[in-house]
Predict the structure.
Amino acid sequence: MIKASFKPYTLNFKMPSGTSRGILKTKDTYFLTINSENKCGIGECGLFKGLSADDVPNYEEKLKWACQNINSGKDNLLTELTEYPSIQFGLEIAFKSLERQDMFELFPSKFSDSEDSIPINGLIWMGSESFIKQQIKEKIKAGFNCIKMKIGAIDFQTEVDLIKSIRKEFTSNDIELRVDANGAFSAKNALEKLKILSDYDLHSIEQPIKQGQIEQMAALCEVTPLPIALDEELIAVFPFTKKQKLLQTIKPQYIILKPTLVGGFKGSDEWIALAEKLNIGWWITSALESNIGLNAIAQYTYCKENMMPQGLGTGSLFTNNISSPLRVKNGKLHYDKNQVWKLKNLND
């Protein structure tokens, strides 16, 4: 007999973080615990307000329902919760955690054994020109050779000048530069802006126009001088046939998978299988989860054997994160088995 419960938790940012959706100071999440006899499993339902498909008024009611029906089995629960991807992912993590002797070693590998690491991109938040420059210097000094810069919040020419200044000092062989527009460009001016950005040897641009403009995005991907990666476009696309149609129609150069937003391991596996069949590149990114969710995403990602830098550097953003063995060093994410998990925060 399994028992389940959940607990809301608010993560506090060390400093306000700017996105095209506004300034983030806190991030709400939910920890899901399941118990069976003397064993315990823990997962995270990392609802992302304003972005998650399951950001709906009855979210906590669905979480209660999942806990009440925990003995109906993981597969049944995942099917019933198709439109609640963050709850699906929390359940997947918790069940896998319950199965393991070490509740945090979900996917045993050289990564979880501290023998290997995952290359990640350094994330540059939106803000003033001086703040962006400061972050770039810090990331380069910290050993990152891939930087992801959020754009679309300040004047476009200022952002271009910043990118130009980076390229004056560092070639694409020194620093791989990715930009994320979070849908900030209009369908009318996007191509013109992509042409300007393509002069600076950028790796790719995420979601140049808002999701849901399928024809316009397809047209853009067909003629773009700069590889396009779909991100928000994948949210709330649940049936496998719709995922297939979306990728076949848009034909992006890359897709970016946030397991919390696309239905966890199962949802990510479906997108990856489709992308590889269509010769579309992909990488995986966290979505401001605590270290509980980030650990699950990182261990899963390592086992996918994708050597591109992944977007898994968000664990150090919060003042009250769950203490874990995850460490970022020289632009890579490590799992230090000499460190221990501390769940004290959960009991406060």
Observations:
- The radius of gyration is 20 Å.
